[in-house]
Amino acid sequence: MKIASSPNKGSLEVICGPMFSGKSEELIRRIKRAQLAKLSVVVFKHRFDNRSTLQHVRSHDGRLSPAHAVDNPQQFFDYVTSTTLVVAIDEIQFFSNDIVPIVCQLIDSGKRVIVSGLDLDFKNNPFGCMPLLLAIADHVTKLKAICMDCGSEAQCTQRLVNGNPARYDDPLILVGAQEQYQARCRNCHSIGI
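^ that's the sequence the OP posted. Answer follows.
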C-alpha cells in the first residue's frame, strides 16, 4: 500500500555507531520525546533481531519501546497510516537495500523517520543499507563507544569467536551481544587469520 505524497516533506534522522555506543538508547529517547509531544509514533525492528524480545526495541541498558518485528519493509504499510507522524526503525542494517525507497516514500508522505544501526560491520566495511541512508539523511548522529581493550573512544565493532577475532570470511550477520562482540578503537580492532 502506498501512502500519498505530502506537500510538506518529512525528514530522515540516522543514529549510527558501533555496538555498545547507545544507538538503541538514543532511538528510544527520541521515540519517548515524540510520544510526550503527543505525536503518533510507529516503531519497527527486523524480525531477525531476536536477542531478547520480538515485541520491543531494547537497549543494552534495559530500556524498552514496543515495536513491530517485520521481515520485509513493505510490511511497514500494514501499520503506518495517514495519521502516523513518526516512524522509528531499530537495527536498520539488517534490512536489504530495498528499505531505502520505502524510507524515501515515508519521507515524501511527510513522516519524520528515525533509524538506528551499525554503520560498519565487524570487518570495518560499510554495512548494508547504511551508506545510502547516511547519504540521504537530514541529520546524522554518529555515536562512539569505549574500547574494551584500551579505554579509548571506539568506532569499530569487534566480533569474537571463542574469544578470538572473527576471520574475514566468517558470516557477515550474527546476532549477539557481549558474548560475541566488543567495541574497539581502530588500533585495537583486528580480523582473525
